[in-house]
Amino acid sequence: MALSLALAAVIAPRLSLAQAPDIQVPIPTSVNQVSGPVAGNVMTQSYVEMVGRMAYVWGYPMVNAYNRRKAFSEAPKPGLLGGIIPVAPVGHNAMLTSYVEPQQRFIACPNQDVVYGAGFTALDTEPTVIQVPDFGDRFYVYALYDARTNEVARIGKQYGTKPGFYLIAGDNWKGTVPPGITAVARSSTDLVFVIPRVFKDDTPADTAAVQPLINQVVMYPLSQFDGKMKTVDYAKLPHFPAPAGSGGETKWVRPASYYEDLADVLKRVPPLPGEEALYGWIRSVWEAAASNPETKQQLVDTFAKADADLVDPLFHFRYNGRPIGRGWTAPANASQWGTDYLNRTAISKSSMYQNTPEETQYQFKENDSQGQPLDGNHQYTVTFAKGQTPPVKGFWSLTLYNAEHFFHANPLQRFSLGTKNKTLKDNPDGSLTLYLGAKSPGADKESNWLPAPAGPFSLLLRNYWPEAAIIDGSWTPPDVVKTN
């Protein structure tokens, strides 16, 4: 009986509460708008450092992109920086006329399979038109990257893109699309980096054949659109002096100016759905630093440490993406990052501006079949079995990079091998062996030789317009075997 009374005493109040009317408690609107500490809260040094480290890793790719556009905005007209890097005022582009030169340091991990172009937009000012000529059977792809380094359009051979005029506009642009525009690409950021890539082989004849096509790859503000295909003789571009650089990529993200740079980015780049609280959290610390020099200095010091401890290691290919077998790694969502901030920043650090997985599959390698770092003081082979070269509809290439992810200067001026090369020699059994190392493998094998520095190097296998076997992982690259 006592137990029954005790249970009744516990249950009864619950029943009465369940039967009672709801109590309406108004919640001030301001509560829902708070992101991060309320203004004026005291922040410990450890807290400031924690938010600063997170903000540095998260915002690194966007600061990287905006500082590159600042460099472009200084160009008085389309031209070549240092005679080798295509630059143009915002809203315009420039094109190379052949492969990128090994001396360039604007962007790491270039390839020598395509003729590159480059141009930035400022969509908060005006939409931009970009021309697509009739490339016929030639492979090409235009990658359009927003400020987050996501691709915002699908223009290229693999998409069946029709020749014509394409408009790049901001999400909020409500102007009239003029007759003659084939399609409109929208971007949630005012910055879009347009990088046309037009395949050509390594023969002088094909270099000449591609010129009329690339001369029609032109980009300009909508106010200049007249429905007529414009041409530019890119062989006559003026040359601008280039600042002195080091062996590595130009330093586009600098801890000393990151506080100001990220604040500018936060104003220009709207949050993705779900990022609103993240923006508020970061801004709360930035606002505290604005009125407290010591807090700002803590942030600057934190950025420098985060750069060394968190971002610098991501330069290594082994931290780019996921293992796919035989010591190779590959990103699964290149230029489709969403909220994958780790891989977004890793690629921004090591090899900025990759194509989507459907456009290009990138496969990285830094170690040999024994797990030892690749070093040009040794010699290596990569052998594709008969019929087992990368299954692609576009082209493939294996590029060798020095320790800074740039081309290693060599007498052959050869930095990659693949579809573009017309002198590759198959083995008697139909397999294809490529030779890697600082020393020649012998005159009879030099057509298949990738010269390496006498020191560390890495490899990047590009598969443009990959077949399903590469995308689903049923085909993976062969291992790299040390032969001495």
TrEMBL record:
<feature type="domain" description="DUF1214">
    <location>
        <begin position="360"/>
        <end position="467"/>
    </location>
</feature>
<keyword id="KW-0732">Signal</keyword>
<dbReference type="InterPro" id="IPR037050">
    <property type="entry name" value="DUF1254_sf"/>
</dbReference>
<feature type="domain" description="DUF1254">
    <location>
        <begin position="94"/>
        <end position="221"/>
    </location>
</feature>
<dbReference type="Pfam" id="PF06742">
    <property type="entry name" value="DUF1214"/>
</dbReference>
<dbReference type="InterPro" id="IPR010621">
    <property type="entry name" value="DUF1214"/>
</dbReference>
<dbReference type="InterPro" id="IPR037049">
    <property type="entry name" value="DUF1214_C_sf"/>
</dbReference>
<dbReference type="InterPro" id="IPR010679">
    <property type="entry name" value="DUF1254"/>
</dbReference>
<protein>
    <submittedName>
        <fullName>DUF1254 domain-containing protein</fullName>
    </submittedName>
</protein>
<feature type="signal peptide">
    <location>
        <begin position="1"/>
        <end position="18"/>
    </location>
</feature>
<dbReference type="Pfam" id="PF06863">
    <property type="entry name" value="DUF1254"/>
</dbReference>
